[in-house]
């Protein structure tokens, strides 16, 4: 036991004071590692040693206290980052140390796949305690993942106004402005002075988050304009709101796409924007923090979709990960087999000119890389709404011209390389022609796949890289070996 105590003291040295989420994660991982080590040390003790369970319990309590104190000082977003970065068992251990009153804020921050795993471990009482203090719009974000009886129980504690807001937000589609708007905002009339507005603001405990403007409404809550906070501060207090408010402001409708709202925030550098209904009545607002979440989620989905993946826990069980990844890998296997079959049809050609086997991978690879550049550009342009029927023709011609010029330049270099290692200028010309043609194929597929999927309302990124690789490999082999068969044999 003395040796064990010495090891435990050694483990407690060099404690960290975390300065950011990454350092906090490392600190949590170190504490968990120590805890696992203690468990191993205790389990190695002789079976008859009655002190071992006591030591284990004491050390567990000490580590839990230290870990709980660390979590208490972290922002909910940092705790969410830590939970997303831990294996499931460690994640659950950390989650058990989070105070119930903070659990709701953290559930809002974590990724969907983590939220589902955390909620699955909580009973109804814990879930009610975690969500009962959330705002209506925040509760609406969690509602799809919560058991219906929990939502019903939480609704009992809401006021009639809050219950109506919750019902309204939940009625909108998931990817709409209505689903991400909040109701906390300041509104005033246009016939009062700025001094009256300032006195009104001073009576508030605090301004709603990201308040850069005050909305001006009439007696029926119809939006008339907005009063910027900076104008309010520097203007004469005796000035009426109507004289300094902005009437030409961007407004959003609750059924607008959230992605379109995000594009507007990016384009106009907005911090907040009002949401109005069909008759112009102010019903909510969208703030930049919600827009950042929309942009991040869209970016993550796009990156995963290009590889044919769906969002998954990085520590998910192997069978679950296989179910997620296998479909497009099987598709890729079929496409690769097709490319190999095409190459096998030219067995005699490769048998006569063996060096073709080494050069054809260059043609296929360059075509794939060039096509991927085109595809990435198109997917990004579609995501921000820059492509429409008026400019798509010009864009297609431009990409084909770029592929032609790059193909000629790159093909010339490839031709010199082929000539240098084979001593045959005719092989260099075939190499150059194949490069140009395959780059044109890559450009066509890089545009055709995302544009076609977008035309039919599908995610333009899903499986795009797999289809592109199939086209450039298959056509690259066919073009290069076909030209070699025609002109070199």
Widest beta sheet: strand line-up:
1-2-3
User: In the residues, how many domains can be counted?
Assistant: 3
Highest CATH level, the class of the largest domain: Mainly Alpha
Q: How many β-strand runs?
A: 5
The H/E string reads: HHHHHHHHHHHHEHEEHHHEEHHHHHHH
* Termini separation: 82 Å
Largest sheet: 3 strands, mixed
The CATH topology of the largest domain comes to Tetracycline Repressor, domain 2
| Sequence stretches where pLDDT stays below 50 over 5 or more residues | 1-18
Q: Helix content range of the residues, please?
A: 55-70%
**Shape, principal axes of CA atoms:** globular
Strand share of the residues? Answer: under 5%
Look at the helices and sheets and give the structural class.
mainly alpha
Please identify which CATH superfamily of the largest domain we are dealing with. Answer: SLC41 divalent cation transporters, integral membrane domain
The chain-level mean pLDDT equals: 85
Can you tell me the CATH architecture of the largest domain? Orthogonal Bundle
SS field, number of helical segments: 23
Tell me the Rg in angstroms.
31 Å
Give the secondary structure arrangement, pairings included.
Blueprint: H1 2-11, H2 21-43, H3 51-72, H4 76-84, H5 88-95, H6 100-109, H7 112-119, H8 124-131, H9 136-142, H10 148-156, H11 160-170, H12 177-180, E1 187-188, H13 194-202, E2 213-217, E3 223-228, H14 229-234, H15 241-244, H16 258-268, E4 272-276, E5 282-287, H17 288-306, H18 318-344, H19 347-352, H20 356-383, H21 392-422, H22 425-455, H23 464-487
Helix pairs in contact: 2-3, 2-4, 4-6, 6-8, 8-10, 9-11, 16-17, 18-23, 20-22, 20-23, 21-22, 22-23
């Amino acid at each position: 036991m003395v040796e064990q105590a010495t090891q435990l003291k050694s483990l407690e040295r060099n404690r960290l004071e975390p300065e950011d989420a990454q350092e906090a994660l490392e600190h949590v991982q170190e504490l968990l590692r120590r805890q696992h080590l203690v468990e191993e040390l205790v389990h190695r003790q002789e079976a008859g040693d009655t002190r071992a369970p006591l030591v284990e319990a004491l050390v567990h309590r000490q580590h839990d206290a230290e870990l709980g104190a660390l979590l208490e000082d972290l922002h909910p977003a940092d705790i969410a980052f830590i939970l997303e970065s831990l294996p499931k068992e460690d994640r659950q251990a950390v989650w058990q140390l989070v105070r119930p009153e903070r659990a709701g804020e953290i559930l809002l921050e974590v990724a969907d796949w983590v939220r589902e795993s955390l909620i699955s471990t909580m009973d109804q009482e814990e879930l009610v305690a975690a969500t009962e203090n959330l705002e209506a719009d925040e509760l609406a974000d969690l509602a799809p993942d919560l058991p219906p009886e929990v939502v019903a129980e939480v609704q009992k504690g809401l006021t009639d106004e809050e219950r109506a807001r919750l019902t309204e937000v939940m009625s909108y589609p998931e990817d709409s402005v209505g689903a991400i708007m909040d109701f906390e905002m300041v509104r005033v009339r246009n016939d009062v002075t700025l001094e009256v507005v300032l006195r009104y603001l001073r009576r508030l405990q605090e301004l709603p988050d990201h308040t850069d403007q005050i909305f001006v409404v009439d007696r029926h809550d119809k939006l008339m304009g907005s009063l910027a906070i900076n104008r309010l501060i520097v203007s004469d207090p005796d000035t009426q709101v109507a004289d300094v408010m902005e009437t030409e402001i961007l407004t959003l409708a609750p059924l607008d796409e959230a992605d379109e709202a995000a594009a507007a925030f990016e384009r106009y550098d907005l911090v907040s924007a009002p949401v109005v209904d069909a008759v112009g009545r102010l019903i909510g607002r969208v703030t930049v923090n919600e827009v950042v979440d929309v942009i991040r989620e869209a970016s993550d989905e796009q990156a995963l979709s290009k590889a044919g993946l769906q969002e998954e826990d990085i520590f998910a069980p192997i069978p679950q990960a296989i179910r997620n990844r296998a479909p497009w890998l099987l598709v890729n296997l079929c496409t690769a087999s097709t490319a190999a079959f095409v190459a096998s049809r030219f067995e005699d050609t490769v048998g006569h000119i063996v060096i073709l086997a080494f050069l054809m991978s260059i043609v296929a690879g360059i075509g794939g890389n060039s096509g991927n550049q085109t595809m990435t550009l198109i997917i990004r342009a579609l995501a921000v709404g820059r492509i429409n029927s008026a400019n798509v023709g010009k864009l297609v011609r431009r990409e084909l011209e770029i592929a032609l010029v790059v193909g000629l330049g790159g093909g010339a270099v490839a031709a010199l390389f082929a000539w240098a290692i084979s001593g045959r200028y005719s092989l260099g010309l075939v190499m150059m022609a194949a490069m140009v043609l395959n780059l044109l194929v890559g450009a066509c597929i890089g545009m055709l796949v995302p544009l076609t999927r977008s035309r039919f309302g599908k995610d333009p990124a899903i499986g795009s890289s797999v289809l592109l690789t199939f086209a450039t490999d298959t056509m690259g082999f066919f073009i290069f070996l076909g030209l070699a068969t025609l002109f070199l044999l």
